[in-house]
Amino acid sequence: MKFIPKLLPVLLAAQCAAVFANGNADTIFYGGPIVTVNAKNEEAQALAIQNGKIVAVGTKDAVTKEWQANNTKVIDLKGQTLMPGFVEPHVHVIVTSMFESLWFNMSNFSLPYDTINTLTQKLKVQLKNVPSGGWLTAFGVDPSRTTPFMAELTADDLDKVSTEVPIMVVNQSGHIAYVNHKAFEIAGITEKSPSPGSGGIYVKDSQGKLTGKLVEPPSYLAFLAKMPNPSEAQLLGAIEDTMKKIAATGVTTASDMSVGGNFGVDKEVAIYKGIYAKSTPPIRLRGYLWGQALPVGYNTIKPNDGDDHLRFIGVKYISDGSTQGLTAALNDPYTYPKNSKWSGALDYKDAEIYGLMKPFFDQGWQIAIHSNGDKAIDQTLNNYEKVLAGNPNPGERRLRIEHFTINSEAQVKKAVKLGVIPGFTIGHVDYWGAAFNNHLIGPERSKRIDPAGDVKRAGGRFTLHSDTPVSPVGPLRYISEEVTRLWQLPPQKELGANQSVTVDDAIRAVTIDAAYDMFADNIVGSLEVGKQADLVVLEKNPRKTPPAEIRNIKVKETWIDGKLVSLQ
Predict the structure, then answer these.
(1) C-alpha span between 402 and 371 (Å, rounded)
(2) How far, in whole angstroms, is CA 159 from its chain's centroid?
């Protein structure tokens, strides 16, 4: 029979009737607004669940009449709001587990900023907890949020903490790190050691002396190789804790964008498979293999390996560094320091990164490329255009650009034309907006950071994410950040009002559009019949809350597969 699109709703209804037994829902919610995030952005009065899936969404009378039975659990929301579980398209679960649980977490997203003195004092306190023969490892210093502005740790600063214990401190961006001289000694890095390539640099001063600064993750490898690894129990416990913390923000599906970046692809795939084989963790996971860790011809894991709880779908590359770290690749120089001629650098030549990703694209993997600066975005879009050449429907590959921070309107239009989905670390506007505007790139480029408004006007989709551990997970905060575009540092100002979108647009960016971004929109992202019952219960309705206050709405409950997630 020839397929007729208009028959689709009828066929789906018939399929649902065959699968679900009317009059016997496991759970029914009512008594508060149910924000469906369907195509019409409708709100409903009641929702029914059976066997982990949504079987009815509509009026209270209709849903209860058709689906309520004696053993149905009926939940009165008492005015609270039910929404689809949030979808977080860009996190680093294993990295976050290490940096925030197993390392010393120094991240500071509040005011006032730290100073070099407060940072070294915190490290001295933590030094007492380092076992004999261990390293002092820490994460979360940020020169762009340090007083004075852009003050950085040096090997000499860290030597004041200890000359006997090796020290490594990773910058908040993840693209820069700082070590003491003992760490250089143990890693075997000297002033004669060449930088490792692929963007990795052992930074030296004008006299050729190692400063203690490392640029890009390839420069970390010599140090990481000498550190004691956490035990399996420590690592698995940290991963479990991180997943619970993510779920506590209302997230039910997330993408780990660096599978293999720490212990190798096969080992990290095995870690995840082991976790999901033993139990059902509190979040669904979509895995993206770390491109730099993949050998040529790698085909051990196939595209879409897994199931609806754990699935490996993509390969991720990094084309440049951090904008606030002055390592993102720009077409024009940074404005800091004054009269700077530095514009960052690409991690790969055009042909190099194309040669790396093309075989995996041909295997059927989704490709995602970290591109912060407009020079890196140009490179990525040009290479995407090449791999998509001849494809009559390029959007079906759902290629991703991660961050898309410094950009032009022409780049937005090209991305939308190619069906490429930009994902924004919207915390750039909040936590770093003042630094971008006042120091790093100037007002004209700053007002275009994370151009959701332009993407929307061009007819494309965009997503919002944390890039944790770079910034904290919190989809409700992303909505506030995207709609208000206020930076944190007093006096607060709006950064690029033209790039703001509506609350409904921002909600879609953390639900259905983020699900689309990772090929999961068929099962999650909206509250519709046939989809998995992944839900979040909120204290208030974000659609009825002043945008600046949405970030303060409390997440009351998180549900996955129709079951309340235990976060204890």
Answers:
(1) 6
(2) 34
- Tell me if 195 sits within 8 A of 219, measured CB to CB: yes
Among 325, 99, 135, residue whose Cα is nearest residue 214: 325
CB atoms within 10 A of CB 222: 20
The per-type count for the chain, helices as H runs and strands as E runs, is 18, 23
| Measured distance CA(243)–CA(251) in Å, rounded | 9
Tell me the pLDDT tens digit for each residue of 243-287: 999 999 999 999 999 999 999 999 999 999 999 999 889 999 999
pTM over 0.70, yes/no: yes
Cα torsion 432, 438, 444, 450 to 10°: value is 0
What domains can be seen in the chain, in order of their start residue?
A: 5-79 (2.30.40.10), 93-224 (3.10.310.70), 252-524 (3.20.20.140)
How far apart CA 216 and CA 221 sit, in angstroms, is 10
Neighbours of 21 (CB within 10 A): 13
| Interval 402-458: pLDDT, tens | 999 999 999 999 999 999 999 999 999 999 999 999 999 999 999 999 999 999 999
Contacts of 377 (CB under 8 A, 6+ apart): 371, 401, 404, 406, 407, 411
What does the angle CA 33 – CA 35 – CA 40 come to, to the nearest 5 degrees? Answer: 125
